[in-house]
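Bumping with the actual sequence this time:
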Amino acid sequence: MLRARTLRSYIARRFLAMIVGALAVCMTLIFMIDMVELLRQSRSAATVTVWQLMWVGFLRMHAFTEILIPFAVLVGSIGALMSLSRRSELAVMRAGGMSVWQFLRPGMTVALLFGIVSVAVYNPLAAEATARAEQLMATLFGSETSFINSSAGNWLRQDGVDGASVMSASAVAEQGLSLTGVTVFRYDNQGRFLAHIRAEKASLGDGYWDLVNVAVAMPGREVERFGAYKLATHLDRERALDALGSVNSVSIFELPGVIDMVERSKLPTARFRVQYELLKSRPLLLVAMVLLAATVSLRSFRQGGIQTMVATGIIGGVGFFLLTEVSRQIGLAGLAPAMVAIWLPVVIAVLASVTMLLHQEDG
């Protein structure tokens, strides 16, 4: 029993080392690619330093990392199994009477725990980092970026006692209550254009937006600047969250409350429900990645064709991620329940991988 425990611990460490290594490579590539984009944007902001850009890149990296965690587990699992096979350790285990399920159990356990930690610990930190990165991006680049760049976010049409307005923000914080890098087009009650408003920040009050450091451009008049400016709106917190909120800046622990709040306001909850189910399914998804990796990694090096098997595994993983993305979009469109749209591809991947492993093991 002690020897079996030692062997399982050894296999688990190999899986953990390979998965962490693959994830570290993914994070490094994400950071470097994002830094290139940040450096390109910094040409229009003379006061931005390299250290500020690196900090923003570090904060932004975590949102992309969450997307690549399953891919890192797939690549790391393939690497771990290929390493064991290259050293003939898998052959020795099989000769000792171990089945594929016995030496895969430590890897699946590592993937399951890795998924739980990534959801319960890493996701809240990544959500906070994403919200902070959005605020810093708007602070560093908001006043220097062009109108086209600053309009990359969602646009919101709202009514108020003084007429309608159309608003966009570079960054959203506090679940839609606080905006940064605000652009507003204001109209009167007859729909005639009144003013183009740019503000550094905006916070939602009771029946109005409180704008800070405002520049107002009206037809036929010079630009006027105000330290504070109030914009009338009938918008409330729930509708602001639905229109401007970012699901990536909401952690898994906050999502149930957000879903309930939006649902009580009779607003669409599809994107929040899909995100919630996506996070809940991650532990099983990572286990599926280990099983998928095993289907293409158990062949002996002496039999040849290793490169083909690895390429097949990577292509299969990419195909699976495309399937999950299509299913996710179906859920976002409301064509299927969020639970079905997210969990069905994961269950299919598990069942298909188990079927292939049973065929390889027992014939």
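The tokens above came from a reply further down the thread. The beta strands are 155-160, 163-173, 178-187, 193-204, 208-217, 224-232.
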